[in-house]
Each structure stands twice: as structure tokens, then as C-alpha cells.
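Check the record.
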Amino acid sequence: MKKSLVNKHKYFNNKWFARWAKIYYYEKYIMFPIRQKAVTFLKLNPPKNIIDIACGTGSQAYELAKLGHNVVGIDLSPEMLNQAKRKLNNELKLKFQQADATDLPFKDNSFDAATISFGLHDMPYEIELATLKEAKRVVNPMEQS
């Protein structure tokens, strides 16, 4: 992966999405039914360790955590993560951290599943590919069926 391409994407992500983070927080009202349906498609019996890549304001991660999963949401944008952290509470096994999806700070096979809600559509092809490779790396191959 060319460092300049990753840096260009980080700049776009942090500048573009930083402006929209507060508005994205309200997408939960529109997307709520879709996010609930997406969770049921996974057919995972809790508790599973799940990474939500490009989590944005954390809506998908939150829905997964409500079902009893241990969820880590990662995103490049600190502004998006600030909105996501509003969803934290002591009853959920949910955390958020800033991370680059093309270079995840987790060991191989750390998770049972990975989700990416709407993040890929904004990524250049090379970044999409690197993100999917990283997702595959951190998900336990025994769970990838």
C-alpha cells in the first residue's frame, strides 16, 4: 500500500467526515430498521467478539452490543468517534477507538466476525482492498464460514 494513498484518504476522511459527524449522529433514525435487520443476517449467537470497521457514529456496533456481543468499533475520524462514544454505557460490552482500517492494531484471529456498514463506498479501490484484507486477517478463520 502506498503511504501517500493512505495519507490522502486519511486527509479526506478527517476533513470531509469531520464536518458531518454531528449530522451522521441523526442517521440512526433513518437507518435503524436496516441496522437491526443487518444484525439478524449475521446469525451469531452471543457473546461473539466483533469488530465494526469504519464504524462512524457507532450505530451498527451499538446494535450488535445490545444483543450481547463484545464489540470494538474503529474509525479514522475523531469527530465520528466522539459521536459514537455517546452510545457507551456500563451495560454494554462496547468500545470505540481510532484506527486505520488498512493497518488494524489487533492480532491475527482476534475476532469472530467483522462488519463494515457503509465505509467501503467512500474508499478508493486500493484502500477498500487493503481494508478487506485486514478484516480477513483479524477474523478467526474457524468463524469464516
Observations:
- The chain has a mean pLDDT of 81.
- Residues 3-143 form a domain with the Rossmann fold fold (CATH 3.40.50.150).
